[in-house]
Amino acid sequence: MLLDRTIGSAVLRAFLxxxxxxxxxxxxxxxxxxxxxxxxxRYQVRDAIGYTLLTAPERLLQLAPVCMxxxxxxxxxxxxxxxxxxxxxxxxxxxxxxxxxxxxLCVPVVLALFLIAQFIIPVAQLVAQRAQAAAxxxxxxxxxNGGFWAQKDRQFLNVRRFSxxxxxxxxxxxxxxxxxxxxxxxQAAQADVTPDGGWVLxxxxxxxxxxxxxxxxxxxxxxxxxxxxGRQLQLLALPPGTMPPLALFAxxxxxxxxxxxTLFYSQSFWSMVAIPVSLVAMALIAAPFVFGAQRAxxxxxxxxxxxxxxxxxxxxxxxSGYLGLLMGLxxxxxxxxxxxxxxxxxxxxxxxxxxxxxxxIGLLHLLxxxxxxxxxxx
Length: 378
Fold this sequence. Notes:
378 residues, 2 domains, elongated
């Protein structure tokens, strides 16, 4: 329909322009941060540029809700200033119908973001980590200086450094008896992943508890059958926020089946789910500002307020996520609550603005404003 094409085209152009601009802006800030590593090992400016470009899709995903809010404000605002929205309303098109055209645009945008999160971001993140690790001369973990942890059947594994290849560094393995006492402890400087999925530990220090005594062994190598697969190893090397959504969901379900803690990964998964909800909420909450600006004569002020609202929302969403982790709240509630509250606020503002606005201007009312209308005694 002409209405959907006109509104969708205006908002989509603004969204693409804003997404490119904001992603470049925040990528520039990330590049400046990467410059602090230049000079360490073989890390050069070109490595910093490559890392920044490879991690740009993740920033695009996080900025998408704000881009949708600003795109709806700018796109609909441009149509309002050109009296196109007024023309639509004069033909009986409701505000809900106009907002529906924007919400239809959210469907392909959400699909595109899902494909980026599922197929582009994880691969780009792994390549970025490997390239950075190779240039710095050290493997980097996606989970910070403490590496990552995994557990199963009273076995606890800690890998300090892992770049996503076939070599792991700084391993710690703790195995416990059924009564909770420590059975043995294995420390290895390095582990090589074999093609069959096994690990060969190098430079091994093993301590075993036998009859209250601790026996210590130093081994050049030790074969070990890990309890995590190669696929899980690749995923654990990534920050949870950059893992593929489907793989992250499957990993959370596996942790639950094994009765392991899932709060950290569940929070990351529901934060991904909250992105499309935030997109819809941002598009909805833009409407009251645009329609209100048509009559209030302060479109710039309304757009500024809407932009500030989007920024506050993102900060509130981040705070809600951290509070959920600290207080052990339900991940779905802490991740989705800000978006659902924004949806409710947008619906309330739209309804409130609809009651305050005058009815749509008809053709007869427009003609009455001209002298020819008076001459014809309309």
